[in-house]
Design a protein that fits this description.
The structure holds two protein chains of two kinds.
Chain A lengths: L2 E5 L2 E3 L5 E8 L8 E6 L5 E7 L6 E3 L7 E6 L4 E6 L8 E12 L2 E7 L3 E5 L2
Parallel strand pairs in A: 2-11
Antiparallel strand pairs in A: 1-3, 3-8, 4-5, 4-9, 5-6, 7-8, 9-10, 9-11
Chain B lengths: L3 E4 L2 E4 L5 E7 L8 E6 L6 E5 L3 E2 L7 E6 L2 E6 L9 E6 L6 E2 L3 E5 L1
Parallel strand pairs in B: 2-11
Antiparallel strand pairs in B: 1-3, 3-8, 4-5, 4-9, 5-6, 7-8, 9-10, 9-11
The chains are: A mainly beta, B mainly beta.
Chain lengths: 122, 108
């Protein structure tokens, strides 16, 4: 059974940093690209970042470019999102998601984690 | 980037009725690269439809998708109580992938 479990969310002050993790199991992690997608409270879904299966290709949404860094450890079946210079508008539930298929870095996802909440507030 | 506009914002129907949800793109979505997701409160999105009309694994056949170019539709033929949720369309034909703002399907 495919499982994606996010962790690392919490309350952080504006300008602060946070590192999210996603532990994957039930599939060959190194064979799949991965995504982070976020959802602000009461709002819709927003794609954040994509990473290729061997970290060879990385994309970011304009809203996080230069502040967030996606990475992965295939030996540990883990996906990460390092978030720096956090802003109030980054407050959201962050989901890691495994794509069913991608067109370049543009994917649709058939497995999602339960999400981890990041709150940016003073 | 492609902007997706979903309508209506809220749809109030009764179990057993037919639901028709619309998703309109600001420009043509290449290769019908359009997906639909269902999201219930406190849960992650669930993939329903991809390629505009292909059902994902385990999705009941009361869910169907159609459309091409800039106009897409998700139809639920006979609503079950568990179908009341928020539905999002998403295009993956061009980068960046984008989502619609969602349609809330509520019990009348």
């Amino acid at each position: 059974e495919v499982q994606l479990v996010e962790s690392g969310g919490g309350l952080v002050q504006p300008g602060g940093s946070l590192r999210l993790s996603c532990a994957a199991s039930g599939f060959t992690f190194s064979s799949y690209s991965m995504n982070w997608v976020r959802q602000a409270p009461g709002k819709g879904l927003e794609w954040v970042s994509y990473i290729g299966s061997y970290s060879n290709t990385i994309y970011y949404a304009d809203s996080v470019k230069g502040r967030f860094t996606i990475s992965r450890d295939n030996a540990e079946n883990s996906l990460f999102l390092q978030m720096n210079s956090l802003r109030a508008e980054d407050t959201a539930v962050y989901y890691c998601a495994r794509p069913r298929s991608c067109n370049g870095g543009s994917c649709f996802d058939d497995y999602w984690g339960q999400g981890t909440l990041v709150t940016v507030s003073s | 980037e492609i902007v997706l506009t979903q309508s209506p914002g809220t749809l109030s129907l009764s179990p057993g009725e037919r639901a028709t949800l619309s998703c309109r793109a600001s420009q043509s979505v290449s290769s019908s690269s359009l997906a639909w997701y269902q999201q219930k409160p406190g849960q992650a999105p669930r993939l329903l439809i991809y390629g505009a009309s292909s059902r994902a694994t385990g999705i009941p056949d009361r869910f169907s998708g159609s459309g091409s170019g800039t106009d897409f539709t998700l139809t639920i033929s006979r609503l079950e109580p568990e179908d009341f949720a928020v539905y999002y369309c998403q295009q993956y034909g061009s980068s960046p992938r984008t989502f619609g703002q969602g349609t809330k399907l509520e019990i009348k």
